[in-house]
Amino acid sequence: MDLAMAGAPPERVVSPTPADLRALADKYRTLAALRARREELEGLGRAGFDEAEGEARRRAFRRVAHAFPGALRELDTCSAALLQKKAEAVEAAAARDTSAIPTWIPVVFHFHHTLREALAIKLWLARRLGRAGTVTDAIVDEYRAAHPAAGTEVDQAFLERHLHPPGGRVLALVWDRLGRSHGLSAAQIREAVFGDPL
Fold first, then answer.
1. Are 90 and 119 within one domain?
2. CA 156 to CA 163: how far, in whole Å?
3. Collapsing DSSP states into helix, strand and coil, what is residue 25?
4. Are 181 and 13 in contact, with CB atoms under 8 Å apart?
5. Pair (54, 110) in one structural domain
6. pTM of this prediction?
7. Do 30 and 65 contact (CB within 8 A), yes or no?
8. pLDDT computed for residue 3 by the predictor
9. Do 76 and 155 fall into the same domain?
10. What's the pLDDT score for residue 152?
11. How many CB atoms lie under 10 A from the CB of residue 89?
12. Per the domain annotation, does 76 fall within a domain?
C-alpha cells in the first residue's frame, strides 16, 4: 500500500542539538540498564522482579516513554550490549559537530519526534470525533486555528489519515513520513530505530 501523500515534498529534517543528543544517550543508557537487569535475572532462571524493583522499573518505563515515544520496544529488540553501544555512539556524536553524526542518529531522533506528533494529532481528533468520526472542513479549520505552525500541510486527507491510519497503526504514518524525510525505506528506518545500525 502506498502511504505517501500525493505530490508531498520531502519534509525538512530538524537536526538534533547537542542537548537532544545527550537526552537520546540518556535514553539508551536507561534502556541498557533496564535490559541488562532483565538479562541478568533471565540468566538466573528468574522471570520477574520483586515489588519494589518492579515499581522502579515502571517509573523508568514511563519516563522514557514520555520523553521518547516508541522507545520501550527497543527493550525487546535490542540486547543490553547493543543499547550500551548506541548510548556510547550518541554520546560521541554529542561531543562533536552535529552535522557529522552517523545517519541513524537523526533518524532515531526524528522517529521519536514524529511518533509523538502523530499520536498527539490522533488524540486531538479522537477527543473531538471519537473513533467513528469524520473529518470535516470545520475540524480542519479548528485544527489549523489551534496549531498555526502546522501550515497548509494540514488538510482533510492529512487529518483523516491520522484519525484512521492505515491498518489502524500510527506507525504506518511514521514510517511513511520518515521515509520521505530521510529517503529510506520502512525496513531501513526500522533497522535504524529497533535494530543494529552500528
1. no
2. 10
3. helix
4. yes
5. no
6. 0.88
7. no
8. 29
9. no
10. 77
11. 18
12. yes
The grid cell for 53 is 524493583
**What pLDDT was estimated at residue 48?**
86
Instruction: Write out the three cell numbers for 131.
Output: 473513533
Helices (H), 44-79: 51-67, 74-77
Task: Calculate the dihedral angle through the C-alpha atoms of 4, 100, 104, 111, rounding to the nearest 10 degrees.
Answer: -50
State residue 132's pLDDT score: 86
Please identify, among 95, 116, 143, the residue that sits at the C-terminal boundary of a domain. 95
pLDDT of 2: 29
- What burial class does residue 54 get, using C-beta atoms within 10 Å of its C-beta: 0-12 exposed, 13-18 middle, 19+ buried? exposed
CB 94 within 8 A of CB 32: no
One-letter amino acid at 87 equals A
**Cα distance between residue 162 and residue 153, in whole Å:** 13
- The SS3 assignment for 16 reads coil
117 shares a domain with 174 = yes
Residue 22: give the domain boundaries: 18-95
Number of domains in the chain: 2
pLDDT, block means (10 residues), the chain with 198 residues: 32 79 97 96 90 96 97 95 97 82 94 95 94 92 90 89 93 93 92 93
